Amino acid sequence: MKKISFILVCLFMVVGMSMAQNQGRGNRAPRETAKEMTDRMTKEFKLNDDQKAKLLEVNDQYLKDAQKRFEQMRGQGSNNGERPQMTPEQRDKMRKEMTAAREAYDAKIKEIFTEDQFKAYQKKEAEARSQRQNRN
User: CA 81, 84, 85: angle at the middle one, nearest 5?
Assistant: First the structure.
């Protein structure tokens, strides 16, 4: 009886930990992520209420579009959720699409931010890009 109880406790712990890991960022709606992103950027770049409202719409649309691109990319892979095996041409096309989307996003940000805010944004993005490159 003690062995069965011990096994059940262990099983519940494993299942609980597994479920907790699945509650990460990947399961959130784009609007929720956009709101958190906007709140962080509002504090970081000291945006006013009008800028915050405009930024929320831009972030929301950017994340919805990114989700669509991701789903299209997943559609090229297997149906069991594995990472798709893309040809070099497909990978290059995806990279170009992502770069174009990011440039369009930055252009919209520039329209919303003041000159000083946008410079601070560009500096922060350059630092983040550098850190990502150093990780790889």
Answer: 145
Q: Which of 36, 82, 76, 77 is nearest to 59 (CA)?
A: 36
Q: Contacts from 9-18 at CB under 8 Å and sequence distance 24+?
A: none
Q: Which two tokens stand for residue 74?
A: 């997943």
Residue-wise pLDDT tens digits, 67-111: 888 887 776 654 555 666 778 898 898 889 999 999 999 999 999
DSSP code string of 37-64 = HHHHHHHHHT--HHHHHHHHHHHHHHHH
Distance CA 16, CA 132 (A): 32
- pTM value > 0.85: no
Closest CA to 117 of 51, 58, 37: 51
What's the rounded Cα separation, in Å, for the pair 21 and 15? 10
- The C-alpha atoms of residue 125 and residue 122 are separated, in whole angstroms, by 5
d(CA 92, CA 86): 9
- For the chain, give the number of residues: 136
The owner of tokens 């991701």 is 70
